[in-house]
Structure formats: structure tokens, C-alpha cells
Amino acid sequence: MKTLLLFNLMMLLLFTNMLSAEPWKFTTEASLSFNQSYYSDNWAGDELGSITWAANSISIAEKQLSVLFHNRTSLELAYGQTHQQSIDDNGKKRWGRPEKSTDKIDLESLFRMTFQGYIDPFFSIRWQSQFIDSKFDDETYIINPNRFTESAGIMRSFITEENHSLSTRLGAAFRQKIDRNVFVEDSRETQTTYDGGVEFIAEYMKRFLPQDILYKSTLEVYQALFNSEEDDLETDDWKAVDVIWEHRITTKIWSVINAVFLFEMIYEKEQDSSIQYRQTLGLGIFFQLY
Q: Which domain range does residue 239 map to?
């Protein structure tokens, strides 16, 4: 009961501060890239046609809620497919089913207590998922699996310029994963797991002018300290440190035409004992709204 009263008091205080706060600042960046190639059946070479498209958007809403509280809510969406030709048993070129090339939903709301000191306390809520889960051919699930992360700790901004920023945060994190598409003994079930540990996140941004080249890098490190399934797991891979390091370079070619380079490395021993990485390079239409 005391915890509930304290929570309600904090929400009331936060809502009261929001009434007299400054307006929200919105930023949205969206891009659409498309690549296509086709070769006739009598083409002398062994090249095959393909169609690849990808849509990406990053939206950020920021507001100084009060003298004490600042909020930044970010939403990153990405989805793309690749449609590839193949040679059938009769030697004819056939178009196969579109295969998903990228799929991402990442929503986070970060609350920072602005004490104007060397470090500031923070707490955040994050939801990560994907649009389509088709890991099994017999059925497709929408918005699955889902991971929720609640974290709290301290953060520090080392660089706060308009075109140059660097911030880090360190805290305790509690994660829940809900997967509706898990096979257990030949039947599909919903599986809910959770763990907790220590999380470190570093975010860096640099815009190079007058070339208008934007570089962003995000490093996420997570060390689990407990796992709800640890007694049932055959290995201790969940105890290994999880690392995600993403690099994104965006440069304007002409007007709304931009080139985007993305490189991401992932080390999550529960999935694979080796480092996973992906790289994309695309040219497409880019929109930036304020």
C-alpha cells in the first residue's frame, strides 16, 4: 500500500509539472530505399534478378517536463524484404517468395532528473519487437516476440552541442521476454521469461558540416545476474555479457536523395557463440521533419 501511494504521489507531481512545462520538440527522419535487377531467360550469364526494398524511420520527442524532469521518447521502425530469382528443375528462372531482410520495432521513454551536476539519475522503459515472426513456415505471428526492459541508474552527458553529443548511462535493468510462438513437445505455447542485471549504454552523434554527413553510434552492454530459467537451462550461456554495437552513417547526395550505411555487431552467447554482424548500404529517399 505504501508503494502504491508513493507511486501515485510521484505521478501526480510529474503531471502537475507537465502542465507548466515547455512545448514538446519533435524530430522525425524517414527513408525508403529500393533496388531492382532483372535478366531475361536467354541471358548468357548466370546472374539472377532481385528486388530489395527497405523502409526506416527514427522519431524523437523531447521535453523539459519541469526544472527537475526531462523526457526523451524515441521510436525506431524498420522493415524490408528481398525478392530473389532462382533456377527451377527445368532450368527456368522463377521468382521465389519475398524474404524478410530487416524488421525492427524499438520504443523507449527515458526520464532524466536534471540536477545540473556531474551525474543525473534516470529511469527508462523500453519495448522491443518485430512486425512479423515467421520462424516457422506453418504460421505467421504479428508483433512477436516482445521484450520489455525497465532500467534505473545514473547517466552523464560529456558533449551536448547541437551537432556533436556523447552520453552514457549505467544502471540496473530488469527484462521480460514474451514469445507466443514457441514449440514445446509438438505444441505451440506462449513462453514468458525474465532476467535482471547491469546495463551500460553509450550514445554518440557527430554531424560533419558543410558536407552534411551524420554519424551515429550506439553501444549497449548487458550483464545478466539472474535468469528465471537458470535451473532448467543446460548451459550457463545466459551469464555471458551481451553486446550490441551499431554504427550508422547518413550523407545527403542531392536534395532528398541520401545514402545510408549501417553496420551492427551483436554478441549474445545464448543465440550464437560467435559474433553476429550485418551490413547494409542503400540509396533512397530521405525525409526530415521538425
A: 2-289
